[in-house]
Design a protein that fits this description.
The protein has 157 residues and is an alpha/beta fold. It has one domain: 3-Layer(aba) Sandwich (Rossmann fold), CATH 3.40.50. Helix content is 46%, strand content 18%. Helix 2 packs across helix 3, helix 4 packs antiparallel against helix 5 and helix 5 crosses helix 6. The protein is globular and about 45 Å long. The relative contact order is 0.24. The N terminus is likely disordered.
């Protein structure tokens, strides 16, 4: 597993590699630190993003709330249909427990859903720790480029 530092400018970002052991403290800190930008783990399928995140969350933040990006958007769409969108959004954003959203790649090609998830996660990050995962598809940077301006992105290869 190789981890790329988000601290460098995008042009040199892929040249800086963190030791995998350095990623665990960053994830643990993110799981215990509301008010920080969301932490994003991105990498190819099978690179260990979700396994690492779930094992650390189980030990450090057992009350973590888990969503897939698909389930989260379906919950928001259902709330819009029922006229309870503001209540649903406030419930998700203001819950103090850490929240982990997996498979942000499912938002590829869905700009309205991406924008709403971004607004929700930024609002939630003020009250609760937020960590997301993204499985990188070969040659597709759409969701990754959407994430970079507002999340602390670590590449896991």
């Amino acid at each position: 597993m190789t981890v790329t530092s988000p601290l460098a400018a995008p042009a040199v970002q892929s040249a800086l590699v963190l030791d995998p052991a350095q990623l665990a403290p960053r994830v643990l800190a993110a799981l215990s630190r509301p008010g920080s930008p969301p932490l994003a783990l991105e990498g190819p399928s099978g690179s260990g993003k979700t396994t690492l995140l779930r094992s650390l969350a189980r030990s450090a933040a057992p009350q973590t709330v888990w969503y897939s990006a698909f389930d989260l958007t379906q919950e928001l769409v259902g709330a819009i249909r029922e006229g309870s969108y503001d209540v649903c959004r406030a419930r998700i954003a203001e819950d103090p427990r850490p929240i982990c959203i997996e498979h942000l790649e499912d938002l590829r090609g869905k700009p309205a859903s991406r924008d709403e998830v971004r607004r929700l996660l930024l609002s939630a990050a003020a009250h609760r720790p937020v960590v997301v995962t993204l499985t990188r598809a070969r040659g597709d940077a759409e969701v990754l480029e959407w994430l970079r301006p507002w999340a602390e992105v670590h590449s896991v290869d």
